[in-house]
From TrEMBL:
<dbReference type="InterPro" id="IPR002104">
    <property type="entry name" value="Integrase_catalytic"/>
</dbReference>
<comment type="similarity">
    <text>Belongs to the 'phage' integrase family.</text>
</comment>
<keyword id="KW-0238">DNA-binding</keyword>
<dbReference type="InterPro" id="IPR011010">
    <property type="entry name" value="DNA_brk_join_enz"/>
</dbReference>
<dbReference type="GO" id="GO:0006310">
    <property type="term" value="P:DNA recombination"/>
</dbReference>
<feature type="region of interest" description="Disordered">
    <location>
        <begin position="365"/>
        <end position="404"/>
    </location>
</feature>
<dbReference type="Pfam" id="PF00589">
    <property type="entry name" value="Phage_integrase"/>
</dbReference>
<feature type="compositionally biased region" description="Basic and acidic residues">
    <location>
        <begin position="380"/>
        <end position="389"/>
    </location>
</feature>
<dbReference type="Pfam" id="PF14659">
    <property type="entry name" value="Phage_int_SAM_3"/>
</dbReference>
<dbReference type="InterPro" id="IPR044068">
    <property type="entry name" value="CB"/>
</dbReference>
<dbReference type="InterPro" id="IPR004107">
    <property type="entry name" value="Integrase_SAM-like_N"/>
</dbReference>
<feature type="compositionally biased region" description="Basic and acidic residues">
    <location>
        <begin position="1"/>
        <end position="22"/>
    </location>
</feature>
<dbReference type="GO" id="GO:0015074">
    <property type="term" value="P:DNA integration"/>
</dbReference>
<feature type="region of interest" description="Disordered">
    <location>
        <begin position="1"/>
        <end position="24"/>
    </location>
</feature>
<dbReference type="InterPro" id="IPR010998">
    <property type="entry name" value="Integrase_recombinase_N"/>
</dbReference>
<keyword id="KW-0233">DNA recombination</keyword>
<feature type="domain" description="Tyr recombinase">
    <location>
        <begin position="160"/>
        <end position="345"/>
    </location>
</feature>
Length: 404
C-alpha cells in the first residue's frame, strides 16, 4: 500500500510498505516530487530492482563475513587466500564504508592506487574480484541496485615467464637432491602438484601397468594446519610412469607397506614444501645453476618434456589434471612453437609440389626418353563439331550464313 498525506506545515509525506510490511516515508515540499518518488519505488518493486534503503547502509566489512562464510565450494587454501586479500587490501579501504556509498569511480581510483603502489596485476585483479563478490551478494540480497565494482579497468596480468628444465638438467637436479631424488623425478616426469606428491601412498603406484593414481591432496593452511582433500580439480586421475621410473620406484618406494606415505619426511610425517626446500631442494637448484627454482616449476618441466616427446595436447591435459585441453593450450602455448615451424614446412612442400604439377601441365616439348606416351588407341578421339554460337540459329540468320 502507498499513499501521500499533506502535513500541517504544508509539506507532503509519501509512504509505502515493503514486502516485509515495514513502512518507509519521506517528506517533499511539492506534491509532484512526492508522487515521482512514490512512482519510482513502485516501479522498482514491480520489476524486482527494489532496494531497502536501511539495508543498503550495512558496511562492506559486515557483509564480507557473510560472503566468505557462504563460499562453501572453496578448498581451504583458496579460502585462506580470499581471507588474506580481505585483510590486506579490501577491508582497510572499504571495511567501514556503507554499501550505498561505494561508487564505481571510487573503486576505479582504489584499483589505480593499488597498481601505483607496485602491486602485481594478478593481485590487483584478485582484490577487485573479492570486492565485486561482496557487492554482488549485496545486489542479490537487494541491498544495492547494481554492482559498482563491475566494468572497471583492470591492469594486465603480466604473467611471469615459465622456466623449463631440460632432461639433462632434471637428471642433474635429482642427483643433487640426495634423499629427494625420486621425488624430483616423479615431479619432473609426471607433472604432479606438491600437494598431490605429499599425499601419495605406496598403494597408489601400480608398477605393472606403469601408472600412479592421484586421488588425494594435502595442503598446508596458515603455515601450520594440514588439510586433506581431493586434487585441485576435484577429480582423480591416472598418470603414466616412464619405464626407468618404474625401476626407481621398485627399489625405493613399493618395498614398504601399502598404506605408508610414499614420500614422507625424515620423521615419517607429511613432507611439507618449505621443509623440503630448506633441507635439500633449494641447495640442489643452486647446484645446477638454477637458483630460485621451485618444486612447482617441475610441473612445467613435465609438460615441456611430454610435448617434446610427441605427446598430444589431450594426453598432456590428462597427465596434468587440467579441467580442459583449452586450459593446457592457453597455459603452455609457448611450447608448441615447433608445431608452427612444422606447419610452415608443410606449406613449403605443398607449394613446391603444386608448382611442379603446374609446370608438367604447361610443358609442350617432346616427351623425354623413357617417359610414358599413350598409344593411338588410348588417346581420346575428338569429333569435329560445327560451332554456331550459344543460341540456336534462327531461320533468317541461317540463310544469311549460308549465303556468305
Amino acid at each position: 500500500m502507498a499513499s501521500i498525506a499533506r502535513r500541517p506545515d504544508g509539506t507532503y509525506r509519501p509512504r509505502y510498505r515493503d514486502e516485509h510490511g515495514k513502512e518507509h516515508a519521506r517528506h517533499f515540499k511539492r506534491k509532484v516530487d512526492a508522487q515521482r518518488w512514490l512512482d519510482e519505488v513502485t516501479a522498482a518493486v514491480q520489476t524486482g530492482t527494489y532496494v531497502d534503503p536501511k539495508r543498503a547502509r550495512t558496511t562492506v566489512g559486515e557483509l564480507a563475513d557473510v560472503w566468505l562464510a557462504g563460499k562453501i565450494n572453496l578448498k581451504p587454501t583458496s579460502r585462506a587466500r580470499y581471507a588474506d586479500v580481505l585483510k590486506t587490501h579490501v577491508l582497510p579501504r572499504w571495511g567501514n564504508i556503507a554499501l550505498i556509498r561505494v561508487t564505481h569511480g571510487d573503486v576505479q581510483a582504489w584499483l589505480s592506487e593499488l597498481s601505483d603502489r607496485g602491486l602485481a596485476g594478478a593481485s590487483v585483479r584478485k582484490a577487485q574480484g573479492v570486492l565485486s563478490g561482496i557487492l554482488g551478494l549485496a545486489v542479490r540480497d537487494r541491498r544495492l541496485a547494481v554492482n559498482p565494482a563491475l566494468g572497471v579497468a583492470l591492469p594486465p596480468m603480466q604473467e611471469k615467464r615459465r622456466r623449463y628444465l631440460t632432461a639433462e638438467q632434471l637428471e642433474a637436479l635429482a642427483d643433487a637432491a640426495g634423499p629427494g631424488r625420486v621425488a624430483v623425478l616423479v615431479l619432473g616426469y609426471c607433472g604432479l602438484r606438491w600437494s598431490e606428491l605429499a599425499a601419495l601412498r605406496v598403494r597408489h603406484f601400480d608398477l605393472l601397468r606403469r601408472r600412479v593414481l592421484v586421488e588425494e591432496a594435502v595442503t598446508e593452511v596458515d603455515g601450520s594446519r594440514l588439510v586433506w582433500g581431493t586434487p585441485k580439480t576435484h577429480g582423480r586421475r591416472s598418470v603414466p610412469l616412464p619405464r626407468f621410473l618404474v625401476d626407481e620406484l621398485a627399489r625405493t618406494v613399493v618395498t614398504r607397506p601399502a598404506d605408508e606415505l610414499a614420500f614422507p619426511s625424515p620423521q615419517g610425517a607429511v613432507l611439507r614444501n618449505r621443509n623440503a626446500r630448506s633441507a635439500w631442494f633449494d641447495a640442489a637448484a643452486r647446484a645446477i645453476g638454477e637458483p630460485g627454482l621451485t618444486p612447482h616449476e617441475l610441473r612445467h618441466t613435465a609438460a615441456s618434456l611430454a610435448i617434446k616427446a610427441g605427446a598430444n595436447v589431450k594426453a598432456v591435459q590428462r597427465m596434468l589434471g587440467h579441467a580442459s585441453a583449452a586450459m593446457t593450450l592457453d597455459r603452455y602455448a609457448d611450447l608448441f612453437d615447433d608445431d608452427l615451424d612444422d606447419v610452415a614446412d608443410r606449406l613449403d612442400a605443398l607449394r613446391a609440389s603444386s608448382r611442379g604439377r603446374v609446370a608438367d601441365f604447361l610443358r609442350t616439348g617432346t616427351p623425354a626418353e623413357g617417359s610414358f606416351e599413350p598409344s593411338p588407341e588410348m588417346k581420346p578421339q575428338v569429333r569435329e563439331v560445327e560451332t554456331r554460337g550459344i543460341e540456336p540459329l534462327t531461320p533468317a540468320l541461317q540463310r544469311r550464313c549460308s549465303a556468305n
